[in-house]
Amino acid sequence: MASHPTRVVRGIIVTLSVAVVAALSGCSAASESGAVLRVGSRNLRCPQGDLETALHRESSQVREYYVGCDFMYTRVLCTKPETGQLAAQCHPAKPQPPCFGGGCFKENPNTFEWELDETLASAEPAPSADVLFSTP
After folding, report:
1. Fewer CB in 10 Å around end: N or C, the chain?
2. Residues 89 and 41 in one domain
3. Do both 117 and 82 map to the same domain?
4. Phi first, then psi: what are they for 107, rounded to 5°?
């Protein structure tokens, strides 16, 4: 009979520890969700109650969310908190820059930020505009 109370105590301890872990992970997710809503609300000029969010993709460094309201949407990037950092830092994602004579931009798969693609950037100078104004 002595083992029955011990099992009950162990069950209570396990249940409480699972509840604490779930609560702590929920707090960090809730703070990131709040940051996503604040950035989206500021970008879209909508009240936070009207916003809808969805996690679009995730890398080892950031999470990308879509935030939308009134048939508009914006992308929000949140860096994953590092050790010692309490909450994720969220900011609006930059749009894809256009290509130009010297090359195009590609998206970094870890940060989801746009960077100049050095492999496409040509070493030769762009053509001179003088050819447009030369006389035949």
Report:
1. C
2. yes
3. no
4. -90, 130
What is the per-residue pLDDT for 99?
86
The residue ranges of DSSP E strands in the chain, in sequence order, are 52-58, 62-69, 72-79, 90-92, 105-107, 114-116
Contact yes or no for 80/30 (Cβ under 8 A) = no
The number of domains in the chain is 2
Instruction: Give the C-alpha separation, 115 to 128, whole Å.
Output: 26
Same domain, residue pair 103 and 69: no
User: Comparing 80 with 14, which gets the higher pLDDT?
Assistant: 80
Dist. CA 64–CA 71, nearest whole Å:
19
Q: Which residue from 124, 98, 126, 95 is spatially nearest to 112, judged by alpha carbons?
A: 95
Tokens (6 digits) for 11: 């069950």
